[in-house]
């Protein structure tokens, strides 16, 4: 049976070499590859199927307030498959009804998305039923390889919608899974979050490529999550067992993601923090939307922050939820340098690609192809008419209140530009790029 399938795969992939760039090389024989393609073909493939311990934290069902339940650093991640660029592994199934206890998607979806998620579960359950009838008792499981981790109100939704135009990038059920940034405490265990990538995992598994140079098969398709709050998360950092009694987080989302996905890649989009703050003010619900109210809010934020740093470090102030509540707006999110410094201590700098929203808005296709180069993917080739559609149009979630309220006062803009200037300088120094001073967008 293994020999027959090797011949079938060879026929299927004849002449398909692609431009895979940096490939996670498959080690071993064709039998190893066949096992990774369908581990139910032979008992010799059993070592590839992850067998979760009955009491394993990684796999517990249901919802609980037990803090140890969400201690990611205690979870034992599965061994990842070598021929997949995305972090994937096989899990044995004994019944098609594997989603019965999924609390995360019910809580995460809300009334609007519940029906959509349910239909996807029904589709997948039928697939598992058919597979079990053929004697195949497995499903491929994948976590995201590519993460758009921030920043909020910097075009992450528009970036996500455009990035997934590439045929080698597959999203889960949502743009923003939010499991690492907060939902793991309220929405169920990580296995429920992984369920939202089951359709993507099947697409990843089915797209096999053959590299004629190295004579190896590989799955080059990348899974993606676009949860913008991930950069500053987890939101409840002080409640994590690893950070108990700390003034600042010792463990952030970067540590938790690396524990499970050592080889992840990250996209971060930022904009002039002055514009980001006004966009945030106009987008989220509040009692008043006026230029005067925003001006007063800015003065309050600066006053509270300057008072805080008289006695504490900038990092302590930015992670202090009490101070943030006093401000009445997510003022800290414009201090891009701080979370990036924290993440660079966990992952190498080359794992990150930083995008200025101003540049992305000016030429989306050009910036997209820079992103694909960073991901070692082929450029996106589109017809001329499609290229115009990609580069044109209003960004998603841009909000409409700017037309009603009008731009911020010039005096407010000047106050914010002057305030953020030294922190933008820190960002430019960290990235080695003066574009992040925003001298061209003052």
Task: Describe the 3D structure.
The N and C termini lie far apart (66 Å). Helix 10 crosses helix 18 (410-431). The protein has a five-stranded parallel beta sheet with strand order 5-8-4-9-10, with helices on both faces. It has a three-stranded mixed beta sheet with strand order 1-2-3. A two-stranded antiparallel sheet has the order 6-7. It has a domain at 2-143 and 177-221. It is α/β, with parallel strands linked by helices. It contains 18 helices and ten strands. Strand 6 (209-211) and strand 7 (216-218) form a beta hairpin. The protein is globular.
Write a concise keyword list for the protein shown above.
globular; 442 residues; alpha/beta; disordered N terminus; 5-stranded parallel sheet; 18 helices
Secondary structure topology:
Blueprint: H1 2-13, H2 30-37, E1 49-50, E2 88-92, H3 104-133, E3 138-142, E4 146-150, H4 156-163, E5 169-171, H5 179-186, H6 190-195, H7 198-206, E6 209-211, E7 216-218, E8 222-225, H8 253-260, E9 265-270, H9 273-283, H10 291-308, H11 314-318, H12 321-327, H13 337-344, E10 352-356, H14 357-362, H15 364-374, H16 384-391, H17 401-405, H18 410-431
Parallel strand pairs: 1-2, 4-8, 4-9, 5-8, 9-10
Antiparallel strand pairs: 2-3, 6-7
Helix pairs in contact: 10-18
